[in-house]
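Handout for the seminar on molecular recognition.
Each group receives one record of this type.
Step one: identify the two inputs.
Step two: read the structure output and locate the region that could contact iron/sulfur cluster.
Step three: write two sentences on what you found, then compare them with the reference statements printed after the record.
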Amino acid sequence: MRARRALQAGALAVAVVLVLHGFLGPDFAPRNLATLGVWVHMRGLLVLALLAFGNAFCMACPFTLARDWARRLTRPVRRWPRSWRTKAPALGLFVAVLFVYERWGLWSLPAATAGLILLYFAAAVLVDAAFTGAPFCKWVCPLGQFNFAASALSPFEVAVKDPAVCAACSTKDCLRGNAGGRGCELGLFLPRKVGNMDCTFCLDCVAACPAGNAGLALRLPGAELFDGRWRSGVGLPSKRADLGALSALFLFGALLNAFAMTAPASALAERLSEATGLRGATPVLGMLFVLGLAALPAGLLWGTALASRREGTLGGAFLAAAPCLVPLGMGVWGAHYGFHLLTGIGTIVPALQSAAEGLFGAAVLGRPSWGMGGMSPASAQAVGQGLLALGLLGSLGAAWNLGTRAVRAWPWMALCAALWGAASWVLTRPMPMRGVMPI
Ligand code: SF4
Ligand code: SF4
């Protein structure tokens, strides 16, 4: 627990620096730690950490540290209402953040980026200071839902070491908590936990288990995507419409986020504007979002569910197969965010030097050299295509394993292959770099 607290304290210190530099530092985004830290470095490192380890961001989350402090004052007793237990609000916020990011170009606005960080702190504190457990992480936080979906592909999970020890355990302290640790606030009972959905890697369960029977375990990345068992704290994935929507949004949100950066997206927006007579950036981008996140996915998923259904409802066919969309989604996020990280990785150094110079009035970290960048765009795109290919392989494997008596695998494999082709085309369009060029 001390190690986690140290991680959180470090993340909190970084957040404070980003917020201060966002408000007080230069307005020029490539020289500001808030815009560089959040939109170039953190997003890329987040995807890398998820693939190499697991839900490292939630483990080090500074927002939960702030809410723990707030709870010393409020001591909440009310539970999150049962009728609110859906990820729909978090998915709505996810779309809202994507929209605001595209519409107002958050990557180029240091003060707005700092404001977003503060808003996040306020939301986490307000929600979790009023309710017991961790409802902000489980039901509200859009970043948390991204991490939960992506960590299906992580090589580690928190699991029991010996199921026989749990079978003889009467206290269930990993869930209920004790003096050693507070137990799982996300409602995951370890012996019946499957995969990483809803797990923040907080390790509270590990601290609470009196038998020392819980810990981080290696597992086959992605295996949980085709494991349809009932899960503690989650239920049956095939009955959770919100989890199906999360899988779909994870892929189509990645595609739209990458597409919106390219010249063909601007051309499409112009055509939409001409065809509908709507003027103004907000309604035109709104149409692009409706097309990319609602109309197109609904049509493609409906058609694929229809072609794949052997028995049951169309919705049932979609929910049974939706997890196969996650690996390709991860490939697109990885290729997109990896591009910005790799091409702009060095930019944080002069920004740090400049911030230190501003703070101390002297060049304590050396003189900033603003020419620093990173990998060439062509090399970064090649790395991205590799990640995309891995994502396609993961989706094809998941779809193959998800094929059951009720659902055929091949329509989902065909859909993933077609979307991979679209993503590959999008990611080879010239992309503006972040942090390196004036933006
Ligand atoms: S993980 Fe520990 S506390 Fe939880 S059921 Fe198993 S032995 Fe009991
Ligand atoms: S299962 Fe353990 S590590 Fe995961 S959220 Fe619950 S307490 Fe934290």
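Reference statements: The longest helix spans residues 281-308. Residues 272 and 287 are 8 Å apart (CA to CA).
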